[in-house]
Structures are given as structure tokens and as C-alpha cells.
Write a structure and sequence with these properties.
The complex is a heterodimer of chains A (364) and B (454). By secondary structure, chain A is an all-alpha fold. The longest helix of chain A has 36 residues. Chain B has two domains: 304 residues, no CATH class; 106 residues, no CATH class. Chain B is α+β, with helices and mostly antiparallel strands and 454 residues long. Classes of the chains: A mainly alpha (364), B alpha+beta (454). At the A-B interface, helix 1, strand 1 and helix 15 of A face helix 3, helix 10, helix 12, strand 3 and strand 4 of B.
């Protein structure tokens, strides 16, 4: 036993020396890195402002819509539609971050199920029901798009003002807006009050850490953008993989707002990655010296974000025309997003020890 | 006859004599009851966590074990039946009531449930299977059992029976230590360096665990601990200290990582190294004396065949962990010879996989996302394991050949990162996996992790 102890102490000491050598240039993962500052910065510079923006957009729509109900003329309807388009962008900024209050309350589905079921919305209108009593596929962002937009401006406007049954329809739209606004304001308040602290305190990289949640949320949203918003429309998606163009599967096809929303998704994701202009996941990757092909991983990831954003801006609006006329460019965007996802799911996850798609089963 | 031959012969005889020496059957009983209780807890936990539904009922596709593609799940809720029967069997095993029947049925059902899906392979399930195999043949119910009280049990068994369990536990530790002699583990302190970052959150020790040297110290001590602990447990003087280390080591891993039952099972299993009189005193203190079998003159019948079965069983276990040396490339990357070799907690590996199915008649290519047919856990496991990628490619080929009515080719687009190194293309994207059968031959369609090395 004493001999064993001797061997252990010699080897332990040896490994100490070895590790001291190495440690100087490559320390333990988050050793001296101040994660709290990073998370605080991501919360203050990105998450809290985007949630606040989302809440103020829903409130603005509510105001504009109330004004329209009092004065259902075309001028007020123009204001309603443009407020909705503003809301689309605000929601696109929040959408990637399905963590914290929105995840606890399972509200992402309530806010943004798509596609919605038109027949369910029509049934709710006929029954003069309120959105709060309806399922997720009859309310939220996409139900509003269905109610506020149509083949033409006048068609949409008349449906809500002068057409038969317009009163019921207008009431239902009001209830959808009210429901959305109530949720948005609760989320913004939760983030600003209690959840910020919780987010900043959840250090480390395990499944309940903010870093873990954030990387997972980013990877999940990139999947959604690539496979659903882009993939399906060119027949390279989860739903359809026939390699054909499917303009009917474009998000926000009625409102012609798809490209802007996707762009906002990516801008928001990139902002979270970089922590705005302050400390973000990029700095943490630099800290652990994550490299690939001799370059900093953070630089490569940012370049990939920019590449995807450039490809989006190269597409002509609306997206449902681009998926037909510029299909090759849309495929290129799809490929670019794929590289970006691989960075998050593989390189970043591995370097930071974050578990993607955690399941509660045992490991060993 | 020469002098040396006689001496050698007598030496072998002495060893055989020692192996045959009668030893207290309480040790086997102790192990039977303890292991039975842990398995009972494990199976109830399995049900309580809803894993039967999640792992066996919900998935539309199951990854098969090599040679066991004929093992299928039961329809719908019938899948719960094996667990109900296993729990009843475990009660029989613990009480030692109809022991032979209970252990036989349990062994078959446990193997059955394990063989259903490769996704759920865990080293500790494999360990349980091996231990159950021993328990199947050995008279674990010779003492402290209902059977023994009824039939009149034997109070002693040959020493080799106890030694089988010690050898079994010792092999696990030794090869787990042996598997750690890798540059990732010893020189880069990976994956511990990545994993210990998880702990900076923890109170008191968090800061200590996150120190730069901790990962190296843990890696080296872990390797030395695993290699030496079987020998320390064998030695009477170091046994107490070694067991103390085992408890500390496993509690630490339980606290730090998501490894479920493994620490508990190993802490219990290592108790077989304690002397039979200790096992007896524990049992006597805990159980009613009525369950204690009296000395009986009945002698145990041990078939000759058992020796050869056990010899083969242990030779297998020594060869399995070494077989990866027959393959080229890093075993952590290719995973050829990775399973059944006590490669425990050796890697942080992340993958991302998509497939392309090509209609060989029209040359049209269709993208396929694993999540369409797999659960999140299955997708995650498959994305880094070549044989599972191959199986899934075959599954897709089947679906598409039926749908298109043409022969198809399947290509995998997989990107993997191992132990903090940059992600790389994992599977040759130009190889039609549908045309490849899984064999024991080296898989040349796995791309090298580090192209310069080859």
C-alpha cells in the first residue's frame, strides 16, 4: 500500500508539472472567464431589448387596430397593416430565443404556430368566439396575417369593414391581437424583472445553464430557418423533399414578409452570438481558443452569418417569387445555413461542452 | 518423471486445490440479494421515468445489434410486459424463491430488452448482462434463500465461484483504466477539460474543479485508479482504503455527470472483494436467522462443462477490449471495437447528419433529415456512430425503393467533432451506403479524423 501511495504521489506530481506547462497556454475551459458578465451583456444588449420591442409592437398594433375599429377607413387600415409588418420583424427578433419565460409557459406555439388552419379561424369567426378559447392553429402571428392580408389590399380591408360578417371577423381579429399583446407584455416584464437574474446566474455549460439553453435555442432556430422557411420552399425540406419550388409553403406569403423576417432571425441570432458590441459567445470561444483550420472559430462563425445574410439580401422580394425565379440562389442560401448549423451543433457544442438535444436518459 | 515436472504439477494441483476449497456460500447470497435490490430499483426507475414509452414504444425504427436483427419490440403497450415480469423475477431472485426459474427468465428478458435498440447501449447494461450470465450458472441461492430453507441448501461452495465475481468486477476496472491510456485522455485531459467546465456552477468545490490543473490531475488519477483498484481490493491490507477510494470516485462521477445507475452498481459490485465472513455477518444482522441455511452434507453438483463455459466467457472479455487494435485509426473516431471494451466517459463527440437518397434510374437526389424517422436521442446517437449511420442508410433505401419502385443509392453527409478538435466530414459522402453491408472488416468509408496522419 505504501508503495502504491508513493507511485500515486509521484505520478500525480508528474501530472501536475505536465499540466502546469500546458495550463499556461491552454487553461481549463471557463477558468477565469467571467460568464456572468457575458450573460448579463447578452441579456441587456440583445434579449431584453428584443422582448421589449416585441411588446411595444403588439401594443402599437393594438392601438392602430382600435383606431381602425372606430374609423374603418382605408387610411386606418394601411396603418394596421404596416404596424403588423413591423410586428413581424419584432417577433422575428425574439423567435430564436425559445428559452426562459416563453419556454416555461409553452407560449412559442401559442404565438407562432404555422401554418394556421383557415377553416378553424373561419369557424371561430362564425361562432363569434374569442381567440383566448381557441387552439394554437387558429390564433397568433399567422392567424393575424390571414385576417389582415388577402389577395389585395381592398379585399382584406373590405373583409374587416364592409363585407357581410365583417363585424364578427373584426372582433375575432381584435381578440387575436389582445391575446398576443397580453402574452408579449408578460414576457417582456418577466425578462426585465425576475428572469434576467436567473439567466445571469445559470453559469457553466450543462443542460440548465444559460449558455446551454442559448446554444440549443440558436441551433434549433437555425434548423427551423433552414429546413422549414427555406428548405420546404425549394423541395429540400422536412415536409417536402421533391426538389421542386413550393411558393405556397413560404412563411408570411400573404403579407409578403418572409425575407425580412428571416433576415431579422439571423441578425438577432448573430447579435446574441456576439453579445451585441459587448461580450458574447464569440468571446468565450476565443477564450477557450476554439480554432478551425488555423482561424478563430468565432471569426468563421461570424463570416458564415454574414454569408447567409448576404445571400438573403441577394434575393428579390417577395420570397415566393424568388423560390421559383432564383431557385439556385435560394439553394445557395440553404447550403450556407447548413454550414452555419454545423458550426453550432458540432464545433461550438464540442468546444464549449454544451449538450445539443438533451434527453434525460442515462449515459456512460 | 523429472523433478521440475513433478514440482510444476504439484503447483497446478495446489492452485486447483485452492480453487476448489470450500468457502462460505454467504458471499454468493450477499451478492444475489444486493444486486437483485439494485436491479429492482433500476427497473422501477426505468418505468417511472417513462423510458419504456420513450425508448421502445414511440420510435418507428430501432437500430439493431449486429446479428440480432430478428429481435423486435412487442406491439404497443405490451412492451411493458417484460418489465412487469422482470420485476416479479427480481423479487424471486432477492428472496431466493424459485431462484433458477427467476434468474433464467430475468436473464432472457433483460437481454431481450437490451437487444431491442443499439441506441440505448450503455457499458453498465453490458456489465449487468455479464453478471447475470454468471448468476445464471452459479448457486446464488445456496444460502440465505427460501429455496435453501425448503430444500436444504449448502453452506459452502467452491472458492472459484466467488473468484468469478471478483474477476468480473476486476476486469471492468482494469480495462476501463487500460482504455484511458490514450493521448486524448492523458496528454490533452480531454474530455474532462470540457466537462469540468460544467461544474464551475457548483458550490464550494466548483471553483476548485475549474482550476486549470484539475482536468489533468483527474485524468491521470482516474487512469491509475482504474488500473490498480482490482489489485488493491484483492490485498487484505489495502482493501479498506481501496473501497473508500471507490466510494469517493463513484460519488464524484455521480455528482458531476449524467451516468445514472453506473456508480451505484459499481459501488455495490466491488463489495464482492470483502471476505465471506463479512458478507455473512452483514446478512445475519439484516435477515431473520430462519433464512440462514444450516450446514448440510449435500454436495453441489457442478457439471464439467461449466468450467469451459466460464473459461470461454472470461477469454472473450479479455479479447473484446483489445480488438480495436486490429482496426486502423483512432477508436474514438471510428468506434470500430469501441463497445464491450469499457470505453467509459472517454469522449465528447458531437455530430450533425443529413442523408441524400438517389434514384438510380432518374438520378434525382432527395434530401432526408434523420428527425423524420428517428427520435432526438436516436438521431444524436446515430450522428457519431458509423454502424448506426449505415443501418439508417439501409432503412432509408428500403423506404425509397418501395416508394419509387427503383433501386436507390444512399449517401450520408455527416460532420463530427471529437474532444474539442475541429469538426470534419465523418463519412465519405461519395460512398453509396446502401450497397455496403456491415461486417467486422474495417470500414474504409469512414474518413480519417486527421488526414495528414494517413
Amino acid at each position: 500500500m505504501s508503495r502504491f501511495k508513493k507511485i500515486v504521489s509521484i505520478l500525480a506530481f508528474g501530472s501536475l508539472l505536465l499540466s502546469c506547462n500546458k495550463a499556461s497556454d491552454n487553461g481549463s475551459l471557463f477558468d477565469s472567464y467571467d460568464q456572468k458578465t457575458m450573460l448579463g451583456n447578452i441579456a441587456d444588449a440583445v434579449l431584453i431589448p428584443t422582448y421589449a420591442q416585441f411588446a411595444s409592437s403588439t401594443l402599437d398594433l393594438k392601438t392602430k387596430y382600435t383606431a381602425f375599429l372606430t374609423n374603418p377607413d382605408s387610411v386606418h387600415f394601411v396603418a394596421v397593416q404596416s404596424s403588423y409588418l413591423q410586428l413581424v420583424n419584432s417577433w422575428a427578433g425574439v423567435e430564436p430565443f425559445n428559452l426562459g419565460p416563453i419556454n416555461d409557459k409553452l407560449w412559442a406555439v401559442q404565438i407562432n404556430t404555422w401554418p394556421v388552419k383557415a377553416y378553424k379561424i373561419e369557424a371561430a369567426i362564425s361562432a363569434n368566439a374569442s381567440a383566448s378559447t381557441q387552439g394554437a392553429d387558429a390564433k397568433g402571428m399567422k392567424a393575424l396575417e390571414y385576417l389582415l392580408f388577402d389577395s389585395s389590399f381592398s379585399a382584406a380591408w373590405q373583409q374587416l369593414s364592409s363585407a357581410p360578417g365583417a363585424v364578427n371577423r373584426a372582433n375575432y381579429a381584435a381578440s387575436v391581437i389582445t391575446d398576443l399583446d397580453a402574452k408579449a407584455s408578460v414576457l417582456a416584464q418577466d425578462w426585465a424583472s425576475t428572469y434576467r437574474e436567473e439567466f445571469v446566474q445559470a453559469l457553466g455549460n450543462d443542460v440548465s445553464s444559460s449558455l446551454g439553453l442559448l446554444v440549443n435555442a440558436i441551433a434549433l432556430n437555425l434548423d427551423e430557418v433552414k429546413n422549414m422557411k427555406v428548405g420546404n420552399t425549394i423541395g429540400l425540406g422536412v415536409k417536402v423533399n421533391d426538389n421542386l419550388s413550393h411558393p405556397d409553403l413560404v412563411e408570411y406569403a400573404r403579407a409578403n414578409a418572409s425575407l425580412g423576417a428571416m433576415q431579422q432571425n439571423l441578425i438577432s441570432l448573430k447579435d446574441a452570438f456576439n453579445g451585441g458590441s459587448g461580450q458574447g459567445i464569440d468571446d468565450l470561444l476565443n477564450f477557450v481558443q476554439a480554432k478551425k483550420d488555423g482561424q478563430d472559430l468565432s471569426v468563421l462563425v461570424n463570416a458564415q452569418f454574414d454569408d447567409a445574410l448576404t445571400k438573403i439580401s441577394g434575393l428579390h422580394k417577395p420570397f415566393q417569387l424568388a423560390v421559383v425565379s432564383q431557385k439556385q440562389d435560394v439553394v445557395a442560401l440553404f447550403q450556407s445555413l447548413k454550414k452555419l448549423i454545423a458550426f453550432f451543433k458540432v464545433d461550438i457544442a464540442n468546444n464549449l461542452g454544451v449538450t445539443i438535444t438533451f434527453s434525460d436518459t442515462d449515459g456512460d | 518423471m523429472s523433478q521440475t515436472f513433478v514440482r510444476k504439477f504439484s503447483c497446478v494441483e495446489r492452485i486447483i486445490g485452492t480453487l476448489q476449497e470450500p468457502t462460505d456460500a454467504a458471499s454468493l447470497a450477499f451478492f444475489r440479494i444486493l444486486f437483485g435490490c439494485i436491479l429492482l430499483f433500476a427497473q422501477i426507475r426505468f418505468l417511472a421515468k417513462g423510458w419504456v414509452e420513450q425508448l421502445y414504444i414511440k420510435p418507428e425504427f430501432h437500430f439493431k445489434y449486429f446479428g440480432f436483427s430478428w429481435v423486435h419490440t412487442l406491439p404497443g403497450q405490451w412492451m411493458y410486459l417484460p418489465w412487469v415480469v422482470m420485476i416479479i423475477c427480481l423479487i424471486g431472485i432477492i428472496l431466493g424463491k424459485w431462484y433458477r426459474l427467476s434468474i433464467s427468465v430475468f436473464f432472457v428478458l433483460f437481454c431481450y430488452t437490451e437487444l431491442l435498440d443499439l441506441t440505448n447501449y450503455l457499458n453498465h447494461y453490458y456489465f449487468i448482462t455479464l453478471v447475470l450470465f454468471l448468476m445464471l450458472f452459479l448457486p446464488m441461492h445456496a444460502a440465505f434463500s427460501v429455496d435453501a430453507r425448503r430444500n436444504g441448501g449448502v453452506a459452502s461452495v467452491p472458492r472459484w465461484m466467488l473468484l468469478c465475481f471478483r474477476l468480473q468486477v476486476g476486469l471492468v476496472y482494469f480495462f476501463a483504466g487500460f482504455a484511458k491510456i490514450k493521448s486524448d485522455w492523458l496528454l490533452d485531459a480531454q474530455p474532462l477539460k470540457i466537462w469540468l467546465a460544467t461544474t464551475s456552477n457548483l458550490p464550494v468545490f466548483g471553483a476548485l474543479l475549474a482550476l486549470p490543473i484539475t482536468a489533468w490531475v483527474f485524468s491521470w488519477i482516474g487512469m491509475l485508479f482504474d488500473l490498480s483498484v482490482p489489485f488493491l481490493l484483492l490485498n487484505r491490507r489495502s482493501r479498506g482504503f481501496a473501497y473508500f477510494l471507490i466510494v469517493v470516485f463513484h460519488l464524484l462521477t455521480m455528482w458531476l455527470f449524467y451516468i445514472g445507475m453506473f456508480p451505484l452498481i459499481m459501488m455495490a459490485a466491488a463489495l464482492v472483494f470483502f471476505p465471506p465472513r463479512w458478507h455473512r455477518s452483514v446478512l445475519q444482522r439484516l435477515l431473520k436467522p430462519t433464512l440462514v441455511a444450516a450446514d448440510s452434507s449435500r454436495s453441489l453438483y457442478i457439471p464439467k462443462l461449466m468450467f469451459w463455459v466460464f473459461a470461454l466467457f472470461f477469454v472473450w472479455q479479455i479479447l473484446m477490449p483489445l480488438r480495436h487494435f486490429l482496426y486502423s485509426g483512432n477508436v474514438l473516431w471510428t468506434e470500430q471495437g469501441y463497445r464491450y471494451a469499457w470505453h467509459v466517459m472517454l469522449m465528447e463527440k458531437d455530430g450533425f447528419a443529413e442523408f441524400w437518397v438517389e434514384d438510380k434510374t432518374t438520378h434525382m437526389r432527395y434530401i432526408e433529415y434523420p428527425k423524420k424517422h428517428l427520435t432526438a436521442l436516436q438521431e444524436k446517437m446515430m450522428s457519431t456512430q458509423p454502424d448506426m449511420i449505415l443501418q439508417y442508410a439501409h432503412y432509408l433505401a428500403g423506404i425509397y425503393e418501395q416508394k419509387l419502385g427503383h433501386p436507390v443509392a444512399v449517401y450520408a453527409d455527416v460532420y463530427v467533432s471529437l474532444n474539442g478538435r475541429p469538426g470534419r466530414q465523418f463519412i465519405n459522402p461519395d460512398v453509396n451506403l446502401a450497397a455496403i453491408e456491415d461486417t467486422f472488416a474495417g470500414k474504409d468509408w469512414i474518413l480519417p479524423e486527421n488526414p495528414q496522419q494517413y
